[in-house]
Write a sequence for this structure.
């Protein structure tokens, strides 16, 4: 077939619909098109096939034997392309029963379990592979196609909003976390300059809270003594509990650790806020699994607002 032939699947679809109904007006009504559009599609298809397909009998357009031959092969072409599209989606992991979901460690306490439970109700057969990592690593894995969707902090993250769909879930404040053994009044705000002599533990570079940690101490005007860097927030808080050092943590962690770790709200000059969101490729916005995730994300966000926890 020559490359200059203008035979599209749209034209073939109109042609097949006409062959089934035998009438331009009924075909136009069934497809939601004008009669002129149907007639033009049939006429240009005939021009590109380069042989007569129809004859006029009065006002009617009557198919010739060649039209029936083309219709037979058109159906085969449509079937093959349909199977090809299905296999293509399977190869890309779209629309299948498995979702590869990436998340920050801190979101596994409440947010991720609620989203997963809601998705399982909507799509009982769905299976989820959960990957926990840093903001930076999750964005990289999504970009390379190793993950279908991620839950991250979009604050200070380099995201291509033309390529990715971003669905905000909630905003979260950052707190100073200290061992329960340190005599601190957690009803007062924390000025980081007052903790210049203390040791600190932190997350490694690339984690959502790391950038805020660096920025806060830059404002305070000193470099904290960091005795250990770790790769997950639970290990970091275990070190705080053990008295190894202080740290900064997002408010979403305080409900779990408030009995063993003292949390102080930061002074106004150091206050920062993370925006947590679901991120996935825009060209997959019609994937039923990701639609279920997005719907649950919107419901989760709305429920937080209605319950007074829009900002942690």
């Amino acid at each position: 077939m020559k490359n200059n032939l203008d035979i599209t699947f749209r034209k073939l679809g109109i042609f097949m619909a006409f062959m089934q109904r035998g009438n331009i007006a009924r075909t136009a009504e069934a497809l939601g098109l004008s009669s002129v559009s149907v007639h033009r599609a049939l006429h240009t298809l005939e021009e590109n096939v380069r042989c007569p397909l129809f004859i006029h009998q009065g006002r009617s357009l009557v198919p010739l034997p060649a039209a029936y031959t083309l219709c037979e092969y058109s159906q085969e072409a449509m079937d093959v392309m349909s199977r090809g599209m299905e296999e293509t989606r399977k190869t890309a992991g779209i629309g299948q029963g498995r979702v590869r979901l990436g998340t920050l460690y801190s979101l596994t306490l409440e947010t991720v379990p609620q989203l997963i439970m809601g998705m399982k109700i909507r799509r009982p057969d769905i299976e989820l592979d959960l990957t926990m990592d840093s903001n930076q690593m999750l964005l990289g894995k999504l970009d390379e196609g190793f993950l279908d969707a991620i839950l991250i902090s979009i604050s200070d993250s380099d995201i291509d909003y033309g390529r990715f769909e971003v669905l905000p879930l909630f905003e979260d404040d950052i707190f100073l976390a200290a061992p329960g053994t340190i005599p601190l009044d957690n009803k007062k705000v924390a000025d980081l300059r007052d903790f210049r002599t203390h040791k600190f533990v932190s997350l490694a570079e690339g984690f959502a809270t790391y950038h805020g940690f660096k920025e806060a101490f830059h404002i305070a005007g000193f470099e904290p003594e960091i005795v250990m860097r770790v790769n997950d927030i639970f290990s970091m808080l275990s070190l705080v509990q053990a008295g190894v050092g202080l740290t900064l943590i997002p408010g979403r962690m305080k409900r779990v650790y408030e009995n063993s770790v003292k949390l102080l709200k930061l002074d106004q000059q150091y206050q920062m806020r993370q925006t947590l969101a679901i991120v996935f490729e825009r060209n997959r916005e019609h994937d039923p699994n990701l639609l279920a995730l997005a719907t649950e994300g919107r419901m989760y966000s709305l429920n937080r607002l209605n319950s007074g926890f829009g900002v942690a």
